[in-house]
UniProtKB/TrEMBL annotation:
This is Diaminopimelate decarboxylase. Belongs to the Orn/Lys/Arg decarboxylase class-II family. LysA subfamily. Pathway: Amino-acid biosynthesis; L-lysine biosynthesis via DAP pathway; L-lysine from DL-2,6-diaminopimelate: step 1/1. Residues 44-293 form the Orn/DAP/Arg decarboxylase 2 N-terminal domain. Homodimer. HAMAP family: LysA. Its EC number is 4.1.1.20. It is an enzyme of class 4 (lyase). It comes from Leifsonella bigeumensis. The modification N6-(pyridoxal phosphate)lysine is found at K67. Specifically catalyzes the decarboxylation of meso-diaminopimelate (meso-DAP) to L-lysine.
Length: 447
């Protein structure tokens, strides 16, 4: 992680706090967020897009995709850095509202929002609801009518473009659950415009996640602006939301496109495609999650056991050193779920020992419970060593589980040499308290 530095003594520090001080105070495993780094990334994304799109006469709204990581503090950091917040469920909505975020600065997503979620969002006055289906157009219109408001909406479009990291696959109609096909857009927009309780803001498209190449976005923008020409015959289309998905570096093989360059290329594409289709340049919205919070986080673990496992290779047998830590797929499911790669370092000390090839394993009873598939650590790595795994700020805590009755670790934020808990960790007592076989009074709680 760009934010963690080695102090002169060889120990990893986050914002001036040594890793060992963090685990001594808050325990291990531990999620650590560098507040200044998260804020700087949020501000940099917003500024680069605002600058690039101002050059073509468009404004930009940046939504932080809360699914990547959401807590009240992080919501407030984003708000203070000028980002709106995208929520994808009633729970995320409740958190953002409780954190004091102005409802007008929230957007609601989801392919199957419940009637209750829609009702709460409309009643709260969320800035926009992203409509995902014909059924939902009617549901949101009804909710708005009941509450006596006009709800702003976007329509999510399945452009047929799905950016898979380095390459994109552009089929006529992609086989996935989100949005409505391009060919149905005009009909749905006509329906939205006919409903007095809805105000049409524009189209939305999200083509994927962990994307390095701009070409998938460019393809989607071309397809969307071609539809704008048709839609403009029936009324205004003030904006275009091109989603999130900007990639980050997890290991040294990930080559990240600087966000300024990404923004410029996207602005060029919007200007070019608008001109080609004879439409005005729309205002733009984006929804990054990972690129804002991912690199600002790291996870600290403590090494428990180490074993050398002999493995067969094409050149004969070799040794793979399995270093097991005190967490795993319950605090970071991404390697097991997506084959995601991470990098690790000894955090608590310096070492001049020769590097050895290691695999960092978790403590769960599954062989797929791996935190880092392959990286190098000094050969003197030993039980009790602290390890840092970089870039765990996005989709780790938010996807965490209690598998094997492990507790979710706390999340601490570090700023200016001081650390504080922003989400407390669970205790075993928390886990046992909700079991009605142990505690009959727990029944009905949370229902
Ligand atoms: N907007 C929409 C509609 C989305 O579905 C997503 C992510 C985002 C924005 C934010 O994407 P980001 O900028 O964070 O890539 N759990 C997976 C990623 C799932 C992304 C789901 N949607 C992972 O850990 O890689």
């Amino acid at each position: 992680s760009a934010n963690a530095r080695r102090a002169s003594g060889g120990e990893l520090e986050v914002a001036g706090v040594p890793a060992s001080a963090l685990t001594a105070e808050f325990g291990s495993p531990l999620y650590v967020l560098d507040e200044a780094d998260a804020r700087a990334r949020a501000a940099r994304i917003r500024t680069s897009f605002e600058t690039a799109f101002a050059a073509i006469g468009a404004t930009v709204t940046v939504y932080y995709a809360g699914k990547a990581f959401l807590s009240a503090e992080v919501a407030r950091w984003m708000d203070e850095e000028g980002l709106a917040i995208d929520v994808a469920s009633g729970g995320e909505l409740a958190l953002a509202l409780a954190a004091g975020i102005a409802p007008s600065r929230l957007g609601l997503h989801g392919n199957n929002k419940s009637l209750d979620e829609l009702d709460r969002a409309v009643a709260a006055g969320v800035g926009a609801v992203v409509l995902d289906s014909a059924i939902e157009i009617e549901r949101v219109a009804d909710a708005a009518r009941r509450h006596g408001v006009v709800q702003r909406v976007r329509l999510r479009v399945n452009t047929g473009v799905h950016a898979h990291t380095h390459e994109y696959l552009a089929t006529a109609r992609e086989d996935q659950k989100f949005g409505v096909p391009l060919g149905e857009v005009a009909g749905h927009v006509a329906r939205i415009r006919s409903l007095e309780s809805l105000e049409f803001l524009g189209l939305h498209s999200h083509i994927g996640s962990q994307i390095f190449d701009v070409s998938g976005f460019v393809e989607a923008i071309g397809r969307l602006l071609a539809v704008h020409a048709m839609l403009l015959e029936g009324g205004p289309v003030p904006e275009l939301n091109i989603g999130g998905g900007f990639g980050i570096a997890y290991t040294s093989v990930d080559r990240v496109t600087p966000i300024e360059l990404m923004a410029e290329q996207l602005a060029e594409a919007v200007a070019r495609e608008a001109e080609r289709n004879g439409v005005a340049v729309p205002n733009i919205a984006i929804e990054p999650g990972r690129a804002v919070i991912g690199p600002a986080g790291l996870t600290l673990y403590t090494v428990g056991t180490i074993k050398d496992v002999e493995v067969a290779t094409a050149f004969g047998s070799a040794v793979r050193r399995y270093v097991s830590v005190d967490g795993g797929m319950s605090d970071n499911v991404r390697p097991a779920l997506y084959g995601a790669d991470y990098s690790t370092r000894i955090a608590g000390r310096a070492s001049d020992a020769e590097p050895v090839l290691v695999r960092i394993a978790g403590k769960h009873c599954e062989s797929g419970d791996i935190v880092v598939h392959a990286d190098y650590l000094p050969g003197d790595v030993a039980p009790g060593d602290l390890l840092a795994v970089a870039a765990t700020g996005a989709y780790c805590w938010s996807l965490a589980s209690n598998y094997n009755y492990l507790v979710r670790p706390p999340v601490v934020a570090v700023a200016n040499g001081a650390a504080r808990v922003i989400v407390r960790g669970e205790t075993e007592a928390d886990l046992l308290a909700r079991d009605t076989g142990l505690n009959p009074t727990a029944s009905g709680e949370g229902a």
